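Open question from group meeting: does this chain pack into something compact, or does most of it stay loose? Before anyone orders reagents, we agreed to write out a predicted structure and look at it together. Recording both the input and the output here so the notebook holds the full record.
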Amino acid sequence: MSDYIHEIDLDHRYFSCCGNEGLAPLCCPQCRHRMVVCYECDTLYGELDRLDRRSHQFDWNSSTLFPCPACGASIGPNCFDDKLLRPTRAEWTMDWAGRRLINAYPFPPAWISVDLPGYRRAEATYGTFHYRSLPSLPDSLRDETFQWIHLWPRAETYDSRWSADRFPSLDEYELGRAELIAAAREACVELPAELLTFLFDRELQLRLRSPTDCSYETRPQLRAAPAEMGGWFLPFFIDSQGSAEWAVYFHNDFGHCVVAALSTFEELQETEWDQLHEKIRFCSESFLEFVARMTLESELWFRLTEQHPPLTPAMQTYVYHYETGRDGAWSWDEEEW
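Structure tokens returned:
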């Protein structure tokens, strides 16, 4: 394997500019900002995590073909041959924005969730959908304080099944938080601040409802991953019948991501590594992204099913993605990746 990222490493399915994409992965020689250029149609993908934001302002008659999107340094017309602009594999895979474009996932990627009535069909209680087919999340939902959820009424407003009485007390949430922080410190695991904010905010939890009666763990437990892979699992969201569970996967190579299994991680504890890898799916690049998408889709299910209350602008944008025909249907037997 080369120490540098080349065009052949990129998954061209993420890029759609001219239909005949010729892609050059580049790094700014000054600040090492990563980018991709389509040399067939002069398109600059200046933000790896926002490929919808593109630039076409190339000046082939100047010593500056285009400025670096991050620091403004000059990128010359010889950028495709300049070794100083060639990104190393370490630079490219430093976060999920780069790892995604070369499909460097710890497990096969797929989104496991419910159907969206009228827009996306699930064959069973949970459907398994192409990770790459998912709609983009609005920036307003990438809020580490989750204020957009706090704006919703308590779930018991719609249905007594989500009565506040069924939720643990504030003391139990605080105990769970303290226990997790202590366990993470002992395991040298860095917990995302938004994870602690979300899981242990009782008032926030009271605003969530699940079509399949899933719930967030009040006292989540870290579980060591098999030695072959290293890292730790933190199961935090489980189906009431144990038919699916989601966990944060912590690893020194990339920080954390969210994975899912159509069983519980306790059941998988004794599974051999080669079989375990086939039972788990990578489903989100961060805890924040997972919560935003799962919360949005769960509430969408109710509003689409019950026709009340009306969809928010973020929900309307989300389902519009599926109106364009991208249903994301996926088969466990399909060899896409």
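Observations to bring back to the group:
The chain has ten helices and 14 strands.
The chain has two domains: 7-101, 111-323.
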